[in-house]
User: Fold this.
Amino acid sequence: MSGGVEWALHCCTLLSRASQPVPAVKLAEYHDVSPSYLAKQLQLMSRAGLVRSTQGNAGGYVLTRDAAAITVLDVVEAIDGVLPAFRCTEVRQRGPLATPAEQCADPCAIAKVMDSADRAWRDSLRAVTIADLVADADRQILPGAVERARAWLAS
Amino acid sequence: MSGGVEWALHCCTLLSRASQPVPAVKLAEYHDVSPSYLAKQLQLMSRAGLVRSTQGNAGGYVLTRDAAAITVLDVVEAIDGVLPAFRCTEVRQRGPLATPAEQCADPCAIAKVMDSADRAWRDSLRAVTIADLVADADRQILPGAVERARAWLAS
DNA sequence: AGCACTCGGATATATCTTATCCAAGTAGCT
DNA sequence: AGCTACTTGGATAAGATATATCCGAGTGCT
Ligand code: SF4
Ligand code: SF4
Assistant:
């Protein structure tokens, strides 16, 4: 999995707190990561329709919908794509004892297992929203931290 | 995920049928894949203790235990390693509003979600054994194919 | 002891991820 | 309306990982 997924999720939680547009440079500075590279992740999220960008002065990124309506899977798929990790190359149709193609209409057991595991993984990620992440973070952080973050974003 | 996982699984099903040691070259020819690269996967499986190699004339690879005692997860972890796909870099401890380290004893919600999804994925793969794959394949292939495969391996 | 055959690890190549830069575009100000 | 300052967007290098290959070490058989 791309390391950029972690950055993207952190940005989502931060954006859910800020009501004003936040530029990419500010998001990068807040998390102390490469601004140029974070910009790429934000572009991917923009294409996926998770965030909306406004250019020009006082522009930046805003979430397109409520944090409770964005799942972790949405972010992961925006960054890493939607194709499953396992890519079957139809080995059974090759070699000296190749299975004839008409016998390969149904996916074999290996493909089924991999597909099932991939689905379980995605179901797990789909069960949690950005709002859940924020709620959990609020429970752990020190009191007043949210206000300080908002003030820093506005400066 | 490594593409070699698919090859490794196919080799396991084939090895479970052959009672004699099968050399890497023969396994590669059977599946029509690169012999040099398949050798690497077999080495990884050997290190993981899934197969045992015997050198010299009439040598090759044999499964170390019954096919029912080898899970798909065993093979996947042998090839791709055991580390989870998501690698947390502790972003929350960086930047101008970094969370103090003593506040970060427990993993955050993001890390928990990723860990949970990874566990669900592994549980899915652990639930199926090589014996299950073979049984499913036997149900789909043409009658006599198993005997032909055994004969080809012996030649 | 000699020989043919096999595995094992060290070595190139290709592909993808990571990181960066500069040009196009937009909103607000004069 | 024109200008300026700011921000995004896609195109472009550097690095890391996965893929593919080769030859030497080791083993059993003759
Ligand atoms: S469908 Fe199954 S048997 Fe065919 S190549 Fe893919 S993993 Fe192998
Ligand atoms: S533990 Fe959670 S908050 Fe900390 S860096 Fe990892 S993902 Fe981010």
User: Anything to note?
Assistant: Residues A 6, 10; B 88-92, 107-108, 110-111 surround iron/sulfur cluster (ligand 2) (CB under 6 Å).
